[in-house]
UniProtKB/TrEMBL annotation:
This is ScyD/ScyE family protein. Residues 1-32 form the signal peptide. It comes from Streptomyces rochei (Streptomyces parvullus). It comes from the Bacteria. InterPro entries: 6-blade_b-propeller_TolB-like, ScyD/ScyE-like. Keywords: Signal.
Length: 373
């Protein structure tokens, strides 16, 4: 990507219109591609291509996924902006939401959340910024992190209703718990262009850790509403030039170890997974993947990482990919999915080991799918 400070919305648009998957999708045995980890080893295994089953459809720009201990699954929907927004004009609406699946129940359990999108011609896909990840609120409702792609000034220019964009907030009263856009605008920790685009969050103590893909930071939101830069991960120094970090997925293990995925500027084969043990400096656990957009821990304490596109973002959209990563050695093994993952953006693993992915995520025909590996 030419400028990693561009909002994730622009990356989605550059990647083109989303594809679709059938219900379910299966294929025969395939040879997984060899994947290198930080020690330079590769792992190639013959595995049957995973079955992908659609669990929910007609989702509005679905983003992050959270698997709950009771078997439920939450999806953050960035929404569709404002209905009838003039073409090429950016408008704010209240179409963001939280979608839940549990047993036979499917539906939106929080609605009316801020969503911003540029107006498009009839029939064109709407790409929105809004809720990008969600966790349950211990006191009722949900805690959401919302994307933006801008600054406090650009947010204010959007007008009334935009105040939760680019923040961590709770759905029951829309109270802002941590304003990552204000943090980036005031402090600009990496010294680059001022640009906030929060992406994922995880609980940490009495507060939250959130990745800001636009600001190249991981920010702590404290219980008193203050923010602090938790990690400023370095650029990826490549032979073709330095790539911006663009942190995306984040997960925290029971022992306090934090894992962060990055896109490394969208460079092919350059994405990294960082491991930060309590009291230690970040270290690279694994690399060699492309466009990592999210990750989660499985029941064995290892990682499942999701690639938005296993190829360069320029040109027609290419399929995404899933990887298993050993949390100790950093060994990477691809989970064969063929061309079944189309512009996926979120992954979660439930207590039974089932993997859920948001798929076909550009527009209002998004899906939640289950990958049976």
């Amino acid at each position: 990507m030419a400028n990693s400070r561009n909002s994730w919305t622009k990356i989605l648009l550059a990647a083109g219109a989303a594809g679709a998957v059938a219900v379910p999708l299966t294929a025969g045995p395939v040879q997984a591609q060899p994947q290198a980890h930080r020690h330079g080893h590769t792992h190639t295994h013959t595995r049957t291509e995973a079955t992908v089953t659609v669990v929910a459809s007609q989702l509005n720009n679905p983003r992050g996924v959270t698997a709950l201990g009771d078997g439920g699954v939450l999806v953050a929907e960035a929404g569709a902006g404002l209905a009838d927004c003039p073409v090429d004009q950016t408008c704010v609406g209240t179409t963001g939401s939280v979608y839940k699946v549990k047993g036979s129940f499917q539906g939106r359990v929080a609605t009316g959340l801020a969503s911003t999108a540029k107006g498009v011609a009839p029939g064109a896909p709407i790409s929105a910024n809004g809720p990008s990840d969600v966790v349950p609120d211990r006191f009722g409702g949900y805690v959401v992190v919302s994307g933006l792609g801008g600054t406090t000034e650009s947010r204010a220019a959007l007008g009334e209703g935009a105040q939760t964009l680019g923040t961590v907030f709770r759905t029951r009263d829309h109270k802002v718990l941590a304003d990552l856009t204000d943090h980036e605008t005031r402090l600009n920790p990496d010294g680059g262009d001022v640009h906030a685009n929060p992406w994922r969050l995880t609980r940490s103590g009495s507060g939250y850790l959130a990745t800001d893909a636009g600001a190249n930071t991981v920010v702590r939101g404290n219980a008193d509403g203050t923010t602090a830069t938790e990690y400023l991960l370095p650029k990826n120094e490549l032979p073709t030039g330095a790539a911006e970090t663009v942190p995306t997925g984040i997960a925290k293990a029971a022992d306090g170890t934090v894992y962060v995925a990055d896109m490394s500027g969208g460079r092919v084969g350059a994405s990294r997974v960082w491991k930060i043990a309590p009291g230690q400096q970040p270290e690279i656990l694994a690399t060699g993947m492309t466009n990592l957009i999210d990750l989660d821990l499985d029941r064995d304490g290892d990682l499942i990482a999701l690639s938005y596109s296993a190829a360069a973002l320029a040109g027609p959209p290419q399929p995404g990919a899933l990887f298993e990563i050993d949390a100790d050695s950093g060994a990477v093994t691809e989970i064969p999915t063929g061309d079944q993952l189309k512009q996926p953006t979120g992954v979660a693993v439930d207590p039974c080991g089932k993997v859920y992915v948001t798929n076909n995520t550009l527009g209002t025909n998004g899906q939640l799918v289950r990958v049976n590996r």
